[in-house]
């Protein structure tokens, strides 16, 4: 079944750069891309295939290679989807945020839910034994974060979106299959749009949408971080235990 989300025109108060929220990233769901159900290793009975996610020593591990990266992305998309679900369902959502901000945050909510569900469906169809190899639905705890505070919500959204962009950028070099790399490239472009939109909500009509803190002035490139740098940040919100022993 096709997932459709209505994308609203963005108010001119965010200037023309913000019109990119009218994006086509959600066509990811209808591309027909199917993840290949294979692994990089020919397994010996006494040598477990570390490329496959699954329970190891009683704890779920993300695995390595393409499946490991895609499961890693699925974990991060679960976090973002959960965060925005809580944002749009907060009791004061309609009063704390302006109509423009509500439109942007609602669009981001829909995007992240689609991303999460896409990874779940794709991995479920590709893993040899999804009943034991698919990352379970994660649980989250946001500590003292007040979802009825505009400042706290936007600051957290900024941190999550910037982290998400750096995560996809850093994981790209770990992906071996061209179709998977194409998928990651499409999603990171959407995540970068999210990051820019949130930054412009916080500081409208400024250069913060592509600030020096995330774009390297000497290379003109965005941040890129390995999973080992990203997961400790995400762990501040994710309460479900899992490991990533075979990801750098």
From TrEMBL:
<dbReference type="Pfam" id="PF13668">
    <property type="entry name" value="Ferritin_2"/>
</dbReference>
<protein>
    <submittedName>
        <fullName>Ferritin-like domain-containing protein</fullName>
    </submittedName>
</protein>
<dbReference type="InterPro" id="IPR009078">
    <property type="entry name" value="Ferritin-like_SF"/>
</dbReference>
């Amino acid at each position: 079944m096709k997932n459709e989300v209505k994308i609203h025109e963005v108010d001119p108060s965010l200037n023309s750069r913000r019109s990119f929220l009218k994006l086509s990233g959600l066509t990811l769901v209808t591309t027909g891309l199917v993840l290949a159900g294979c692994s990089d290793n020919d397994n010996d009975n006494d040598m477990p295939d570390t490329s496959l996610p699954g329970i190891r020593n009683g704890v779920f591990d993300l695995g390595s290679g393409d499946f490991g990266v895609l499961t890693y992305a699925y974990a991060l998309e679960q976090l973002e989807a959960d965060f925005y679900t809580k944002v749009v369902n907060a009791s004061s959502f309609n009063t704390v945020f302006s109509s423009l901000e509500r439109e942007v945050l609602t669009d981001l909510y829909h995007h992240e839910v689609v991303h999460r569900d896409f990874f779940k469906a794709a991995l479920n169809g590709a893993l040899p034994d999804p009943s034991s190899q698919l990352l379970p639905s994660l649980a989250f705890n946001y500590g003292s974060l007040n979802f009825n505070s505009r400042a706290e919500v936007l600051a957290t959204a900024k941190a999550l979106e910037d982290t998400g962009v750096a995560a996809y950028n850093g994981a790209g070099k770990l992906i071996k299959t061209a179709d998977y790399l194409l998928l990651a490239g499409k999603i990171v472009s959407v995540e970068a749009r999210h990051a820019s939109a949130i930054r412009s909500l916080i500081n409208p009509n400024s250069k913060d949408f592509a600030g020096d803190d995330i774009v390297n002035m000497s290379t003109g490139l965005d941040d890129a971080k390995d999973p080992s740098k990203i997961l400790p940040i995400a762990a501040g919100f994710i309460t479900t235990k899992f490991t990533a022993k075979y990801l750098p």
